[in-house]
Amino acid sequence: MKINHLKRYLIGIVMTGFLALLAGNAFGDGAVSQNASRDYDSTKKSQYANNYTVASPYWQVEGGASYTFIAVSHSSLSGMASQIGITINAIDSAGSAYATAETFTILAGNTQRVFIVPTDHATVNTTNISSAVFLAGTTDFTYGHVRIGPPLGNYPQLKYGGTIGTNKIGAGFRDPTMLTYWGSVIIEANTTGFAMEFIGDMNDSQTMGINGVTTAANGGLQSSSTNYMASGVNLQ
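-> structure tokens emitted (236 positions)
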């Protein structure tokens, strides 16, 4: 009997240690001495998941007939770093970069204008609009998609300027998806155009309803109480 009790005692010690190890791994990022992590693996700082990327499915330029305008705004909401950097790329329909990718930083409460234009555009250029960012290519007519992500070294999954358990002004995540994007393809002949859609940003569109089908019956897809698939910024 004493031997059986001893075995049970030893098994209890081993199981307790194993559970403590699991708990340590699960909640390690919650320690005050560590930086806050919002990624599946905070040790892989150079590997960003898709949830830190914003995309727009369409942009267009055509000589003096059309160009693309994008506004990027920092709404200065809680959880956002006071400065958030982004790298923006205009990819053409052939899968190549229309121009060199541009990297810039947006301060809290500010808006940065971005133009996608041909290099020789008569009015929309760096001389006339010096404060804007330009993606200027040599092709007269082309179209494609826009891809926006964090600059190398910004680590959007890590809290910047503080650690968990502290309240520092300006501390937060340098996450491009927490910014607000608006854009339009401008038709110059009659000063009209059509709006661009952005996927993954603060104003990410809500998906179509799933007609009241429960999550379990819908193949495990996440849905909200209004029977829409989960969508929107990567806030945690």
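The longest strand covers residues 83-92.
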